[in-house]
Amino acid sequence: MAIKELIGQTTTLTVARQAEFGYFLTDGNEDVLLHNNEVNRDVAEGDEIEVFIYVDSQGRPAASTTIPEVAVGRYAWVKVTDVKEEIGVFLNIGLMKDILLGAEDLPVHKSVWPKEGDMVYITLRVNRNSLLYAKLASDPVIQSISTKASRNEFNKNVQGYIYRTAKVGSWLYTIEGFKGFIHESQRRIEPRLGEKVEGRVIDVKEDGTINVSLLARKQESQDTDAVKIYEYLMSRNGAMPYSDKSMPEDIQERFGLSKAAFKRALGKLIKEGKVYQEDFWTYVKKE
Predict the structure, then answer these.
(1) Strand, helix or coil for residue 78
(2) How far apart are CA 270 and CA 263, in angstroms?
(3) In which domain, by residue range, is 172 found?
(4) pTM for the predicted model, two decimal places
(5) Coiled coil where (predicted)?
């Protein structure tokens, strides 16, 4: 098999000779360079060594004694190292050279592209020009590595990584190995592809997949919203032109809350004796 046909895979080659910048390995017909930077073991002429074949910055096949977890036909979670809006994101698979996940394989909206430090589940692919790229795992691939959740997981907190995004919601793979879905109504902002999120299980489906909410439990949410409203009041010297009679769109624009959530939080502050309402305004109670 030609060296080019082994790009993105592991193979065993023989050390033919040493050069100033590394070693030339051979399969008996072709040579490939093992650069000094990609050597993590003792190497001597005549040795048979296992190497991973990748493509260097000049577009040439090259070898590494580092064997990545990911390969053509093999999947792994890898970390995002850099984002280039014009071409895509770069991923660390363990080699000196990072691998590109191209813009054509990323979400249309760049606001949900991965950021540095995010984790994505990928395999490797080789294009027509024999260049090596990353490829995101499809939904069936995630399904194949998933564990079925039991009803005991209901209402428990889970953490996981977003592996697919869409207008209707986000899909995640949890640390426990569950495949989950976050409906758009169960998140305040759309999480990024590759972002680590934490939420709670709000349903366990018959097939063992879960539905997850990223919204705080009502009491936690009420506490958070009350703090937000009170801090806004204090920033205005204790008075604001908003009350439980305000228009929903005005509340949404100012606080990012539904009118129901605003009224719950405001009611909490009134009950605690921190604020009062008068003539469609809300005021901080003086001590």
Answers:
(1) strand
(2) 10
(3) 147-213
(4) 0.74
(5) none
